[in-house]
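Posted in: Structural Biology > Protein-Ligand Complexes

Title: Requesting predicted complex, magnesium ion in pocket

I'd be grateful if someone could produce the 3D structure tokens for the following input. Sequence and ligand are given below.
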Amino acid sequence: MTTSEFSNTNLQPLFPAEEIQTRISQMGAQIAVDYRDKNPLLIVVLKGACIFASDLLRAIDLKLGIEFMAISSYGSSTRTSGEVRIVKDLDVPIEGRDILVVEDIVDTGLTLSYLLANLHARGAASVKLAALLDKHERREREVVIDYLGFQIPDEFVVGYGLDFAERYRNLPYIAILKDPAA
Ligand code: IMP
Ligand code: MG
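-- Reply #1 --
Done. Output follows.
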């Protein structure tokens, strides 16, 4: 029997690869217009946003820079604990820079509200957010998403960078994980 990770029966497809690309092209075009006279610094939140970011970057026809941060909200379950910690910090000062944070998903908003405030406090000229997914029903902290890919229902999703316990980041599409215990 052959095993396929990508057509695993525990996955219910939500957004196919083509639909994701189309949406990201639109987001990139809008970002290029909004930042046309600027030199934004995109801060990619590892690891989940890396695939989204690699496609988004190539859809923004502008002079820009990229840096990476890693944030931990503890644990590898399907729920965020609420405690946030910077695991990998920036290597450069961001004073006076126009920052665009690139994140995979905003769920409770705890991670992003912490990170956006932290970046503001470092003296950035502006701090905006591009997020691929918004699970709005679960919000506990208000977070303004300046560039959003898709709204999603309160389901646990994987693929296109998003994981469940480090699995499924390599799926080329986004799927609902039907049974996390399986
Ligand atoms: P928040 O702090 O609750 O907004 O959670 C943000 C982080 O939780 C995201 O960056 C993801 O790493 C993770 N997360 C939340 N929902 C999901 C999901 O449905 N699938 C995969 N990861 C998720
Ligand atoms: Mg993440």
